[in-house]
Amino acid sequence: MAGRIRDDDVKAVRDAVPIDAVVSEYLQLKPAGGGNLKGLCPFHDEKSPSFQVSPSKGLYHCFGCGEGGDTLAFVMKLDHLTFAEAVERLAGQAGITLRYEEGGHGPGRQQQGERIRLVEAHRAAAAFYVEQLGSAEAEIGRRFLAERGFDQAAAEHFGVGYAPAGWDHLVRLLRGKGFTDKELIVSGLASESRRGGAIDRFRGRLIWPIRDITGEVIGFGARKLRDDDQGPKYLNTPDTPLYRKSQVLYGIDLAKKEIARTGRAVVVEGYTDVMACHLAGVTTAIATCGTAFGGDHIKILRRLLMDNALAEVVFTFDGDEAGQKAALRAFEDDQKFAAETSIAITPGGMDPCELRLADGDAAVQRLIDGRTPLFAFALRSIVARYNLDTDEGRVAAVDAAVPVVAAIKNQSLRDRYAIRLIGMAGIGTQAEEQSIIRRVRAMSRARAAGNAPDQGRPARPGYGPGPGGRAAAAPDRTGPRGPRLDLRSPAHRVERELLKLALQYPQLVSPAFDAYGEDEFTGPPYVAVRRVIAAAGGVEGAGDDYLVRVRDAAPDDTVRMMVTELAVEPVMHKVPEIYAGEVLVRVRMNAVERRAAEVQAALGRLAAQDVRPDAPEAIAVRDELWALQQYGQRLRLQGAAGL
After folding, report:
1. Which fold has domain 110-243?
2. Three-class secondary structure of residue 458 per DSSP
3. The whole model's pTM is what?
């Protein structure tokens, strides 16, 4: 039964691990004033530090790219972990034992114990295989690596090892470390013998450790070395509680940061291809593990590429017929990416490993640099199926290719590919050309209007896990949204300052702030922040978890990021105790003046409609105007005491 991490344990982890200590592991921080720290943002390139950390609030925010959140959000984004994974990692660092509730989204207590045991077994197995690569028996494995251009340093970098040819070398080692035969069989490290005991699954083979995105070994890939080995060329770990081949990308632990930084992923076909690419400087290379590239692999890359339309996924395939078929299968998944997709066809049927061995590192770089957009490759492949010497063939080629062109999201590029299709098909008349372009545009509009997952690029909400790792609800598209407001506007500036005070110094604006209505804030994003403060209990109820509650109350990431930004940005006064009253009065005065102007205009409309001055509606409007004027005068004379 699955279980969700208890909220009080999540809070304990947040409290136990200071955000500045975590962030300092990734970048250098310097004092920024007001108790904050600053550094160069790890999420985008910049020359001047705009990334700020507030240790007292447990939050970070980049004023350059807008990224922000708490310690868990930082670890999730930078190391590409789920909410539960981030909590478990930080809990391990802090020595906190997590408890799980039934019916949630995290592992149950029993599953958590099992996972830890299986990870430990794989860690011990990986070390054993690496050690065995230096043995006399492993000479054949070392020769295999050398023949493919990999020296000892390369083997060590990728953790390549060797499984000795006996029946139970690893099993006996792990039994000695306290693991049971059942655990070893469940882990996939061992198989069940005919007598019911455990024997090594991998024997007499070269071993590659397969790691998850956090770097933990969760499985192995084993390559046959001897002719008398009757098994398959590659033997992988079977599906286990740790390992699902459809959800794993080999090399992702080494490539993830470069993929996220550069916005490019290179998909190759094998372990040695990943090694060759990385050693040649293409450090964003990854590969599937004994299965076709599919939907779960796409999800992993989308987490890394953040659905950035400027990102790119490059597929490499052999130039033979099988490679071209694989490329077209990849094209079918193109619409599941926000990123652009390209293809690099290796010359002479060589894979990247063979290409590096034959022509050196530069050849591998040229292969990737010379990639072709997958749309262009697919278009050529589709048109090549038809006999373009006949009218029937040309019409059939156009009919098959128009949906491909219509799927291109960039309108200018889509029109250019439509023109390219016309040329490839040999369409002669101008009327025919215009007809094809109209068909492409009409189909593109229909796809956009349909807005179905299989009819275009995925939606790009960018909404991460909500409280406790649960998926956040879809945002209310009708709610307050918009860019950061013009700080030169006095009204917007003072509203921003009041919200900063309410988030950073709630005790200084309590209880007056809680009486302020949403209509006292004119900027739609500020209205949204005022709303979530109220939803979290207001400033009067602020406690140790106040900011956590406010951020959790946000309906979407746009509002959540605004809350984080306002909670980290310093207030524009050195003495907040004095400043708070001034800002409270200014926001209220602005609201009073706006309402007085509306009431004055209403009086003018009544006069224009010849409504008698002693009519009830006219008296009510004059009374409201008088009350507003009196209240405004009191605020001017008494300041915060007049609120």
Report:
1. DNA primase DNAg catalytic core, N-terminal domain (3.90.980)
2. coil
3. 0.63
